[in-house]
Amino acid sequence: MTPAEMESRIVRYGDLMPCKTAFIDAHTPGSDQKENFTIIGGGVSESPDQHVHIAEAHGFNIGAAGQPPKCRNSLHSHRTAEVFFVLSGRWRFFWGRHGTAGEVTLERGDIFNIPTDIFRGFENIGNDYGMIMAVLGGDDAGGGVIWAPQVIRDAADHGLVLAETGKLYDTKKGERLPEGVAPMPVMSDAEADAYPAPTTADVIPNYVARYWDIVALADRKPVKVIGATGMLRDKPGFEVDLITRASATEAMHRHDRQSVLMPVTGHWRVSWSANETYRAGTTTLAPGDTMSVPAGLDHSAVPSMTGEAALYHIIGTDDAAGPTWSAS
């Protein structure tokens, strides 16, 4: 076997291919300027136009959302974990049946392990285009998105209909549901009202970690941000660590499954040894780049320039991908 090139496992920020029609709210005013990205795994897009950069199953999905100021993502829910960290911009996350149960504002590097089975949305409240990176639990991301009923009703007013197959159809373009395919069932208002609506005080201490708090703890070794023993104690089917300049090491190491490197700040030099599949090599990752490291490959990651440097490291676990919300 000829050794493969590692570049095929790296998705550069500048090469990300957005989809502007990924979800049912793509035509709804206030949500119609957002861009969605599927970086690793199949994601949860409802559009056949969504480009998948790395389709290989990792036990979790990596995606992203890019939005101009005042653009919002509509209220929805997932059955598996949805974790966001802010790459750029200033973001308000809100949740509850009508998005009024609680909210939190996040900035660069902050991370939010959004509880499963609650309605949530988010908007860019900064002055420039912003990007948030996402980790979704499971290879099938829980079977897709569960929309609040008002979102589906609003979308229909603007021509978009979601089929029971999870595919979008644009009636303003003359598209119709295929014969024998029904619309996606819309939950009743009573069913939606029964969803949990935790308060801000319920959520922030257990599901939000601030970037500078994590960095302060990563002065000697990487910090486990999400995991059974993490700052945010949870077992969503993957673990998230933060590595900083102070806790990075040149020592080579390996994992028994694929892992993912996602810089938040600084430039990182990633080196790896040769094996029967991959040539030895070195590359540099910048904020917004995503690298999938193969299982069993000896590698290291260290900052390559002076200044602030931190990256998130994600690896799957054998834990179930959800649920994660608990009123306790």
Automatic annotation (TrEMBL):
Domain Cupin type-2: 69-133
Classification via Pfam families: Cupin_2
Matches recorded under InterPro entries: Cupin_2, RmlC-like_jellyroll, RmlC_Cupin_sf
Gene3D superfamilies linked: Jelly Rolls (2.60.120.10)
Top-rank lineage group of the source organism: Bacteria
Coiled-coil blocks: none
SUPFAM superfamilies to which the protein is assigned, alphabetical: RmlC-like cupins
Protein name stated in the entry: Cupin domain-containing protein
